[in-house]
Design brief:
about 260 residues; 3-stranded antiparallel β-sheet; Creatine Amidinohydrolase
């Protein structure tokens, strides 16, 4: 299936959805504290999306997913299901993944949070994985190939003795949650799809402290590192512009000057 190029009207709608998704991550940070359940974090995000933003949490009911956000703690790579039994404790790291639908268009983003003080090695993993995302975003412009982005992410992660998850990737997004292209976070420079103005997709590298292999739990959603070591992920939705990139889901704490 060919990759869709967005019209100015569609881009305007995606920009709104992206900013709403970013707003949820800005809101939830104050609640990520020792003693809170991931179920409570889900409730807060759900209420804000539905009641304040008058939008739809895309995860809820998607292929049977039972909650409005994904909460992936410590060794969980992605797609962690919020639960009243999962209580955060000091030293945990957690990825919160939010996708908002507004006027039929999607904004998808995730951020790592620390629960109280965390070990130095955990903070280092978080920092390097965020750098991986930013290095990928910095390359986005017409004429660049997806392999260039994957190669840059893989090179940076492996330079710090981490590994990049192969089993899950970024994706095209717009008026559907997942579209073409698939955006791998590893690869060979100079290969893959050539980017064109108007493409919209996510970059969302999952970086493991240990090996890249993953395992799927019996709930058919929760993905963990196979070796039980920590994993960290960051995600943004973006547009290929005439001269570079626009990050639809940029938070107020972030500045992109590419």
């Amino acid at each position: 299936m060919p990759v869709k190029l967005r019209t100015p009207e569609q881009i305007a709608k995606m920009r709104i959805a992206g900013q709403l998704a970013a707003e949820v991550l800005e809101l939830i940070g104050q609640y990520v504290v020792p003693g809170v359940s991931t179920e409570e974090l889900d409730r807060i995000c759900h209420d804000h999306i539905v009641n304040q933003q008058k939008a739809i949490p895309a995860c809820l009911g998607y292929r049977g997913f039972p909650k409005s956000i994904c909460t992936s703690v410590n060794q969980v790579v992605c797609h962690g299901i919020p639960s009243d039994k999962k209580i955060l404790k000091k030293g945990d790291i957690i990825n919160i993944d939010v996708t908002v639908i507004k006027n039929d268009w999607y904004g998808d983003t995730s951020k790592m949070f620390t629960v109280g003080d965390v070990p130095e090695h955990a903070q280092r993993l978080i920092n390097v994985s965020q750098e991986c995302l930013y290095k990928g975003i910095a390359l986005v412009k017409p004429g660049v190939r997806l392999g260039d982005i994957g190669h840059a992410i893989q090179k940076h992660a492996e330079a710090h003795y981490y590994s990049v998850v192969r089993d899950y990737c970024g994706h095209g997004i717009g008026d559907e949650f997942h579209q073409e292209p698939q955006v791998l976070h590893y690869g060979k420079a100079g290969t893959g799809l050539e980017l064109k103005e108007g493409m919209t997709f996510t970059i969302e590298p999952m970086v493991n402290a240990g090996r890249h292999q993953t395992k799927l739990k019996k709930d058919d959603w929760t993905v963990e590192t196979k070796d039980g070591r920590l994993s960290s992920q960051w995600e943004h939705t973006m547009l290929v512009t005439k001269e570079g990139v626009e990050v639809f889901t940029a938070r107020q704490e972030e500045t992109f000057n590419f």
